[in-house]
Design goal:
By secondary structure, the chain is mainly beta. Helix content is 9%, strand content 52%. A 6-stranded antiparallel beta barrel has the order 1-2-5-4-3-6. Strand 4 and strand 5 form a beta hairpin. It is elongated.
Length: 147
C-alpha cells in the first residue's frame, strides 16, 4: 500500500533554500502541513496502530501521549497544490496525534523544486487551510492496488 493524501491542510511553515553544486543551484521549497483526518490513514504506518491509539468508541486511549512520529521518507510523489502539479516531491517527517472522534491530526513535510511564482502565492496562505493532494508518481506501476 502506498501513502496517499487528498484533504484540506493548514500550511504551517514555509522554507526556501538553494540546493545543488556551486555552479548549478536550484530553488527548493519545504512546506509543513497539518490536517485532521480519519484514523484509517494510520494503516499506512502500521497494522493495529489505530487500535493502539483509540478506544473502541473513537476516543484517544492515552490522552497524555505525545505525537507519534514516523521517519518515512517517500520520494517521487506528485503534489497538487493551488491547481498546479509538482513532480519529484519528497514527503517526510510524519507525526500523528490522536483526537476525539477517531480522528488524527497528521503533520508532514513536503520538499520539491517550485516555480518562483508559487513561493509568493503560498506565503499569502501561511496558517490557512488549502487543498493538498499527494500521490505516488508511479501510480501505473501499482499492480493489484486500486488507483
Amino acid at each position: 500500500m502506498k501513502f496517499r493524501f487528498n484533504n484540506k491542510a493548514t500550511l504551517a511553515h514555509i522554507n526556501t533554500r538553494k540546493e545543488g553544486d556551486e555552479n548549478n543551484k536550484e530553488l527548493a521549497l519545504d512546506l509543513k502541513f497539518t490536517s485532521r483526518v480519519n484514523s484509517e490513514i494510520l494503516t499506512f504506518f502500521g497494522d493495529g496502530l489505530g487500535e493502539f491509539l483509540f478506544l473502541p468508541d473513537g476516543e484517544p486511549r492515552y490522552k497524555l501521549m505525545d505525537d507519534v512520529g514516523f521517519s518515512y521518507e517517500l520520494k517521487s510523489y506528485v503534489l497538487t497544490l493551488m491547481e498546479q502539479e509538482y513532480y519529484g516531491v519528497t514527503v517526510k517527517k510524519f507525526k500523528a496525534s490522536a483526537v476525539a472522534g477517531g480522528m488524527v491530526d497528521l503533520t508532514f513535510s513536503i520538499s520539491f523544486k517550485p516555480t518562483s511564482a508559487i513561493v509568493a502565492t503560498l506565503a499569502e496562505f501561511l496558517d490557512e487551510m488549502i487543498d493538498v493532494s499527494l500521490a505516488p508518481a508511479d501510480r501505473e506501476l501499482e499492480f493489484g492496488e486500486a488507483a
